[in-house]
Design brief:
heterodimer; A: 291 residues; mainly alpha; two-stranded antiparallel sheet; 11 helices; disordered C terminus; B: 249 residues; alpha/beta; 6-stranded mixed β-sheet; 10 helices; disordered N terminus; binds adenosine-5'-triphosphate; binds magnesium ion
Chain lengths: 291, 249
């Protein structure tokens, strides 16, 4: 029993990191631009499917395939910002909402046309089991956790200590003031989408390597990302890390000890409870955007 | 008050702000109908007018926040109209906006750093911050406090300081006395005088007409998008209509 708990905690931490990756981009994009970027899920699966294609279909080496997939999905994210969202920014919010959902469905359908409805996976690079007491973690999963941490730590530093990060925060807190002081809002928007999409790409690669990808994975993942974002409040990097972990843990423990069938709903249950008791997000002192 | 170190004001060379026949539209509605304003180098020029006259619109248009629909804006011989705010800032223009517009969840220090956004040299920026701290000692103790938690007066000081961080030669100030107690209004008035005394040209927009008239070398009166009166500060103050309309005499 306790072995099983430990094992599920480890699994929860590993998948939780993936939710953090996707939530991070969503929360920055929403915080800075007010866009509910559902098509962020598309960016995730594009990276996953490209990673699959490069490694399994074309037989390329893992590392360059991963980098290339992330670059490609980042470009897709940037194109969405430039040609879909930006022209809509002056229109009512609901237009952007529908547009985002529309792009998610289009990519979902395209993926099914190209790669089919069956689950696909990337073969993980090295899968040597590591025993932690009675539980098992593979070297690949350990690497995923470590890479996640390094990337998120880097992002935190970027946001907190660099001029670039400061300009992103400035734009989130007061667009007009940022503009007055000379911040180029279009460039900063693109930057936010670029960073978010790259994180989503990493998420897609990890997800396809550890679990499996189907065309609808984009929608499922993006909803969990939004759940994490709402759970912790906007633009709070340490909070988003914890939120992702909570989501991962609740899911894997729920799936084992309650029922596997509802795996995807446990996180939302937590979200609903959290919203009842802390409507501004678990870690936000104010509703305002902060980093 | 300690004088602000001289190096902040190096940019303040001989210059003049020349607005000629400027029109502006929000969508299809024209709110500025060909206004002309000259702000002389080294002077304080005030723009007064009732709510909705178009004062803030004028300031935003000069800063390049919104494209104008007619006329030209020149500063120091350079055409500003058509430029982005970042390029306007690089020409030595800074706007201390209406309502302060601070970054509430950034520290005082970070707000100041944002003020120097268009500047590159980190060492020089640090020096400017030190000079600003000398000038506004109240900000020193609060340098790590979030701007949103400052008092109204402190927020105004920060807004002015942040605008000074770009070492402007032309300072556009939109209702700096907004929401301040009378004693602070006076203090802000002194600060504006000192900024100007260091050589910075000031274009001041005020609801508080008394303050604007007292400080100004030259005054423009804006009414529903048109300049209806202009003249030396003392002249305009003596005008009976102005006294009735703006000074409540
Ligand atoms: N974003 C906007 N869209 C449409 N009309 C606007 C907008 N901003 C201002 N206006 C209109 O333009 C006119 C001038 O506004 P402006 O803010 O420049 O006035 P102001 O002189 O600064 O007034 P106040 O003293 O109240 O600050 C007003 O009639 C206002 O309603
Ligand atoms: Mg105004």
């Amino acid at each position: 029993m306790s072995t099983m708990v430990l094992q599920q905690v480890i699994n929860g931490i590993v998948t939780g990191g993936l939710y953090t990756l996707i939530a991070m981009g969503l929360s920055q994009i929403f915080g800075v631009l007010g866009i509910s970027h559902f098509a962020h899920g598309s960016v995730v699966i594009i990276a996953g499917y490209l990673g699959y294609t490069f490694t399994r279909v074309l037989g390329w080496a893992l590392f360059p395939s991963v980098i290339l997939s992330i670059i490609c999905c980042t470009v897709v994210g940037l194109l969405m910002e430039r040609f879909a969202y930006r022209p809509m920014m002056t229109k009512p919010q609901i237009n952007i909402f529908i547009l985002a959902l529309g792009m998610l469905f289009i990519v979902d359908n395209l993926a099914e046309m190209i790669w089919g409805p069956d689950p696909l996976a990337i073969q993980a690079a090295s899968n040597v089991p590591i025993h932690i007491g009675p539980a098992v973690l593979t070297t690949f999963r350990l690497a995923v956790v470590l890479i996640n941490f390094a990337v998120l730590f880097g992002l935190w530093g970027l946001m907190k200590f660099t001029k670039l990060g400061r300009s992103i925060r400035a734009m989130a807190q007061n667009r007009e003031a940022a503009k007055i002081l000379g911040v180029n809002l279009n460039q900063t928007s693109a930057l936010v989408f670029g960073i978010g999409s790259a994180l989503a790409g990493l998420c897609g690669i990890f997800y396809t390597s550890m679990i499996q990808i189907v065309p609808s994975s984009g929608g499922t993942l993006v909803l969990k990302g939004f759940a994490v974002m709402i759970l912790v409040g906007l633009g709070n990097i340490p909070g988003t890390i914890v939120g992702g972990l909570i989501m991962g843990l609740v899911e894997s423990l729920g799936a084992t000890f309650i029922s596997e069938a509802f795996k995807d709903s446990y996180g939302f249950l937590v979200l609903i409870l959290a919203m009842l008791f802390k409507p501004d997000g678990l870690f936000n002192r104010k509703t305002q955007i902060k980093y | 008050m300690t004088p602000l170190s001289r190096h902040i004001w190096e940019g303040a060379k001989k210059s003049v702000l020349k607005i000629t026949g400027m029109s502006f539209k929000y969508g299809k509605v024209e709110v500025l109908h060909g206004i002309s304003i000259n702000a002389e180098k080294g002077k304080i020029t005030s723009l007064i007018g009732a709510n909705g006259a178009g004062k803030t619109t004028t300031m935003k248009a000069i800063m390049g926040l919104m494209p104008i629909s007619g006329g030209t804006i020149e500063w120091d011989g350079t055409t500003l109209s058509g430029k982005d705010p970042s390029d306007v800032a690089k020409c030595g223009v800074a706007l201390c906006p209406e309502g302060r517009q601070l970054f509430p969840n950034m520290s005082v220090y970070e707000n100041l750093l944002m003020g120097a956004y268009t500047r590159k040299d980190k060492e020089e920026i640090k020096e400017t911050i030190e000079s600003v701290y000398q000038w506004f000692p109240r900000l020193v103790d609060r340098r790590n406090q979030m701007a949103g938690t400052l008092s109204g007066g402190e927020q105004e000081m920060l807004a002015i300081s942040r605008a000074l961080m770009s070492k402007p030669s032309l300072m556009l100030m939109d209702e700096p006395s907004w929401g301040l107690a009378p004693i602070l209004v006076e203090e802000v008035g002194e600060i504006i005088k000192s900024i100007n005394a260091q050589g910075t040209t000031v274009l001041l927009v005020e609801q508080n007409a008394q303050m604007a008239l007292d400080l100004a070398d030259y005054v423009y009166v804006l009414e529903t998008g048109k300049i209806v009166l202009e003249g030396a500060g003392a002249e305009v103050s003596a005008n009976e209509e102005i006294q009735q309309a703006y000074l409540g005499v």
